[in-house]
Amino acid sequence: QQQVKQSPQSLIVQKGGISIINCAYENTAFDYFPWYQQFPGKGPALLIAIRPDVSEKKEGRFTISFNKSAKQFSLHIMDSQPGDSATYFCAASMDRDDKIIFGKGTRLHILP
Amino acid sequence: NAGVTQTPKFQVLKTGQSMTLQCAQDMNHEYMSWYRQDPGMGLRLIHYSVGAGITDQGEVPNGYNVSRSTTEDFPLRLLSAAPSQTSVYFCASSYSLVNRGIGYTFGSGTRLTVV
User: Fold this and answer.
1) N or C: which end of chain A has fewer CB within 10 A?
2) Taking phi first (over 0 means left), then psi (-120 to 50 degrees means alpha), and beta for anything else, what does residue A46 get?
3) How far, in Å, are A97, B15, B64, B108 from residue A83 at the CA level?
4) Rounded mean pLDDT, B40-62
5) A54 touches chain B (CB under 8 A)
6) pLDDT band at B98, cuts 50/70/90?
């Protein structure tokens, strides 16, 4: 059972455009939703995270939108740059459990 | 402060061989875990540990063993390598997820090929 579903699998965006990656979850006990960024040959690194008590969190060009009732959250990258080209993973975890469950990832390519 | 160190970076094994992937962290993190990354499958949890002497299974534990004798080290053992274990393996650590805002620190990975 895939607990965190991520789409699309790959995404191509023009430089300066908005990149949008979507995730959905089933388990309402999840209470922490991080996004990780991975460059080729490197390990993933925490990009931004949100808890379900807020509907949006913004850090620079990166914004998480969270819809608790729909059990969905998304990552928006504004003014996308070639340096943003990477694989992005959404994830979820819950307070009583130390595990983080990852989505399958989205390979983002920003055209120069 | 080296963070999370994984060795080796690359390894080729023959089917049936055993080996240990090493993971060490110098951040005094309580929580450590092993993931495997396969194309189209994302990151799947193999085993994890919430502290020295405590380990538990993740999503895909079969064929792998772990132990946690110290806070710093969390080796992953492949008992009898199979081609299905060809993958990139990542070790990750963090403080207890009570302080989850910090997130995981990942190592740079071990690329394993089983022939």
Assistant:
1) N
2) beta
3) 34, 39, 36, 19
4) 92
5) no
6) low
CA dist A107 and B110 (Å) reads 20
Distance CA A64, CA A62 (A): 7
CA A20 to chain centroid, in Å, comes to 9
Q: What is the mean pLDDT of chain A?
A: 93
Please name which of B26, B63, B29, B59 lies closest in space to residue B45, comparing C-alpha atoms.
B59
Residue B104: band (very low, low, confident or very high) from pLDDT cuts 50, 70, 90: confident
How many inter-chain contacts (A to B, CB under 8 Å) are there? Answer: 58
DSSP 8-state secondary structure symbol assigned to residue A50: E
Most confident of A80-84, B29-33, B58-62: A80-84
A40 vs B: CB within 8 A? no
- State the pLDDT confidence band at B103, using cuts at 50, 70 and 90: confident
* Residues 6 or more apart whose Cβ sits within 8 Å of residue B108: A41, A42, A43, B6, B9
Which residues of B are less than 8 Å from A33 in CB distance?
none
Nearby residues of B83 by Cβ (< 8 Å), 6 or more positions away: B15, B114, B115
